[in-house]
Design the sequence.
């Protein structure tokens, strides 16, 4: 009996004894060659929401700028509101031009939870002056 786990590249369920993912064809041996932050970026596609949330939290606290375009891709793909709210927090910590642009964009999100978080993040990033 094989132990099941999730491919770090595509998030599909795989067998731990496979060296290549049967779904995305990525070599699973390559994961160990990636930096901690790069592995966190891979976790953003994990099927378990708590794993994604933890990765977002850590990426924000590390102020990992390469996460911003990945966040944008995920925002566009339509994540749940709690994941988006966590991305708002991370983007406010990363604090890049592109991150601030995404925060302004999220101020128009259909969810009041996301809009409020983005509004507060934009307000705080401007020293209490709304822009």
Sequence:
């Amino acid at each position: 009996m094989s132990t099941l786990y999730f491919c770090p590249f595509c998030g599909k369920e795989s067998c731990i004894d496979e060296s290549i993912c049967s779904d995305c064809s990525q070599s699973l041996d390559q994961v160990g060659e990636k930096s901690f932050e790069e592995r966190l970026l891979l976790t953003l596609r994990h099927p378990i929401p708590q794993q994604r949330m933890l990765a977002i939290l850590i990426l924000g606290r590390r102020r990992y700028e390469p996460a911003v375009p990945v966040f944008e891709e995920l925002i566009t793909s339509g994540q749940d509101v709690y994941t988006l709210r966590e991305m708002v927090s991370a983007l406010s910590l990363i604090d890049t031009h592109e991150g601030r642009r995404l925060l302004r964009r999220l101020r128009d999100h259909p969810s009041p939870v996301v809009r409020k978080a983005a509004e507060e993040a934009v307000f705080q990033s401007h020293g209490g002056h709304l822009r």
In short: The chain has a mean pLDDT of 86. The longest helix spans residues 81-94.
